[in-house]
Amino acid sequence: MKWLIDLFTSSLGRKLLMALTGLFLISFLVIHCTINAMIFYNDGGTTFSHWGHFMGTNPVIRTLEVGLVAGFLIHIFQGLLLWKRNHQARPVKYSVSKDPKSTWYSRSMGLLGTLLLLFLIMHTSHFWIPNRTHQFTQGEELPLYNMMFEVFSNPWVVFFYVVGCVSLFWHLLHGFASAFQTLGLNHLKYNGIISFIGTAFSIIVPFLFALMPIAVYLKWIN
Amino acid sequence: MKFESKTPEGPLAEKWTKHKFNLKLVNPANKRKYEVIVVGTGLAGASAAASLAELGYNVKAFCFQDSPRRAHSIAAQGGINAAKNYQNDGDSVYRLFYDTIKGGDYRSREANVYRLAEVSVNIIDQCVAQGVPFAREYGGLLANRSFGGAQVSRTFYARGQTGQQLLLGAYSALNRQIANGKVKMYTRTEMLDVVVTDGKARGIITRDLVTGKIEAHSAHAVLLCTGGYGNVFYLSTNAKGSNVTAAWRAHKKGALFANPCFTQIHPTCIPVSGDHQSKLTLMSESLRNDGRVWVPKTAHKGLKAKEAASIPESDRDYFLERKYPSFGNLVPRDVASRNGKMMCDEGRGVGATGLAVFLDFADAIKRVGRDVISAKYGNLFDMYKQITGDDPYEMPMMIFPAVHYTMGGLWVDYNLMTSVPGLYALGEANYSDHGANRLGASALMQGLADGYFVIPYTIGDYLAHLGWNDKVGTDHPAFKEAIDGVNAKISKLLSIKGKKTVDELHRELGLTLWEHCGMSRNEEGLKAAKKKIQELRADFWQNVNVLGGSNELNMELEKAGRVADFMELGELMVDDALNRKESCGCHFREESQTPEGEALRIDSDYAFSSAWEYKGENQPEELHKEELHFENVKLTQRSYK
Amino acid sequence: MKITLKVWRQKNRTTKGEFKTYQHEHVSPDMSFLEMMDVLNTELIKKGEEPIHFDHDCREGICGMCSMYINGHPHGPLQTTTCQLHMRTFKDGETITVEPWRAQAFPVIKDLVVDRSAFDRIQQAGGYVSVNTGGVPDANEIPISKNIADEAFDSAACIGCGACVAACKNSSAMLFVSAKVSQFALLPQGHAERKERAEKMVAQMDAEGFGNCSNTKACEAECPKAISVSNIARLNREYFSAMVSSYKVTVGGGE
After folding, report:
1. Does B touch A (3+ CB pairs < 8 Å)?
2. ipTM
């Protein structure tokens, strides 16, 4: 198994982990976003709660959730480690940097990731952690739909959620295509489509997420 | 001094085969008991070091650059010749041999040139096996082009970067041996002396350019693969670091220096733009395949490239096509250069300085389209635009001759050994194969032939006769003496603290040589140059200013040491040019011309290679002649009419 | 033209460096950047000051020796080597800051000269096809499609200058390593050793202390030879497939 350790401790292997977990988290975002978007049915939370209940209790999903937590942890841990190593690779910095020939967000994945981490801490302590704790201790779920109205009544919270979504947008804008490059999945014929899907995804998903607290706060949903 | 060419007997085509059989072999198990030093890691050095290490010898390789991959072979653009006859156009080993001998104006050794043509085919096989990405046809086979005056397409190329790809191939082979532990590589290390005891080369003295440490290295044989000395002219197409130091110091230790005045002036270089000019940039000769060389029929002072279109077709003089109808723009380099210079001397040169002629692609673009031209020469056009600011797709290039290659170099016998036993010279550092003029795409061929396919055979014979016990340690007094000499020279250079920079003195030397020992030479000019160089040398040793110390990276000190050697070499070049009162190849003596003003060779008196022997500080060198015997080719005056 | 130059001066590896400012009054737009430095150095020597050390050799954009970080870009604002950068690119009166390549793996030797031997060691780890001199097949034995040959050439065009490392925010050497791995992954000659090559070269790259690739593509944008980041994707592919499938054959069967 030494080769496996060698693989995942090599610079490329670490990036591989970032790409794989990144794509896994992207797939999670699809589910998360789809189910949360059920609030836009504006049916008093019936559809949303139905699926929320399914996600919270289905044994398969609950098992996958362990993987999801692991995915987050690996992505975060590796990300921080890479940031540190990359920082060390240039002990003396340049004194001049102007008109760089790369996008700012591609250079700022660490910063955007850190913002997302802070957001994640806030977000999970609003919903996921209390809900799961309650499930474990009391054996029943919390009324997430109602909690949402409560949480998003605070304009600051809404603001930070929107900031989180904007960070997610930039993070995905680079991360999506970058993951494919890291996995070596590139081909002149398909590069265009990967980049198109990546851009579309990074716009649509964060936009929908951002719309949720705003819609609740502005009482488009009741 | 006794020296013999060791050319094998027998029919030309069998000489090399027979010779290889007659050479003594070193037992495979004993090869590891021998140490070989290779100085320089260009095509010749890298290929030799790798090949010898593969055979089992222990090799120490040295280069002054930060990596072996930087050697100036990397800058060769056009291609490499090989008598593969892939194009079915009548090429053969004999034809490549004949073209090379004739192109060299019958001033090279038949047997050497034939061997070069013979092994040329192996070089291509070797390079392809290494993964050199040569240009290919759509069917997947190798592409060829005609190059520099050849009437067959035998030149293999990798876009305009053939030298780079070949060197990276040799560098990769070298790297493999470094990884194997068979080659110990010393980068940023300059050779400053050869150590000779009992008449045999025993090692070298080097300076670590970063720490300044002077070190001794001993070995059973020393290979100098240190390139040419074109930088003696200050301005040349050579890399800034290219120098004669290794070869020159070997010369001072007894190695004969052959044909020093044979310097090739390349016709297609970017003209000089001002006094700040530090080097000249070559535009590959392949450009002459599609470009047409012209000047206006009447003088147009200061004509710019963008104004060229204003000269009607009828007022243009395509002088190469006019004078040499059968070869046209593809005449050999010396002919093209000299004619370009003549146009400028007549006052018909173009550009701000009047020292340039046009190289026009308008017709070619009209004929085959911009895309085809771009595919062939794109990188050269881009480079030209980058340097001059002019776009060659839109207007003609301006070109002028520049010093490019030195056919002269250390005298070597058929085994590539200099007149000092155990000391070899390979590639441009020797004089062996190109006579008085080198054909295009032959330098890469020679460097790799020497390194891959000649030295691995010939060195074995010397080593086998020598025996591994016959080695002198670095504790021998000769090493100590050489180190002292090197140190004394360095201290001297640092202590002068005069008023002139090394570059200023170098530039003066270069101008003198360019003027009097360049494209055309005459007795009066050469004598003046000799005097001037002697004065310059005296000035150098009184007035040079080298700052910094010896125990650190000190590039001024490096330069100073090299220029000091150029100062001595320059005088020998002039002596050699003075002595050769004929015109041949690159060497155009105004006193020796045909009625039409073409070069006139005098075979009755000058069918020899001059080999100069160093006789001591400020002593005139002694000329030895190696008579050239032509048994297979008939000597004719070159004619490209 | 007149130029103000801020140049990094550092005596040797161990001493601390600093910027020094020079007023350069004699600049011609036709000078190359290095010629401008030559003229400045001549003036410095005349004044008894030690000239600025910088690496350079061929001065025609192919040896890869020149290595200055000019105004925030390796080799300056254009996508060329420093030796091919001409002063007409700059404005009269401009201040130009010149720094050495900055990377843990490229320590400064003196002034603007850095040690790039890490690149050589990476090549030594596997950047070759293991063929000895002689005994190889005829050059036309293996046809190679023109497409593949051209693509391999594009990868092989790397001059090893290190601009990719200098440009990368992480000092990653991925573009350099991937160019060589790609050349041999594309050409049939390289196939016999492709797995080993990718593994060994990456291991050496990591050992040298280069950073990771964040796919910012700054390297491609700054590379004087326009080496494409598609090489990096190929390296990733080569490396992962090598790591999951390579094995050593021992007597009596596989590992």
Report:
1. no
2. 0.97
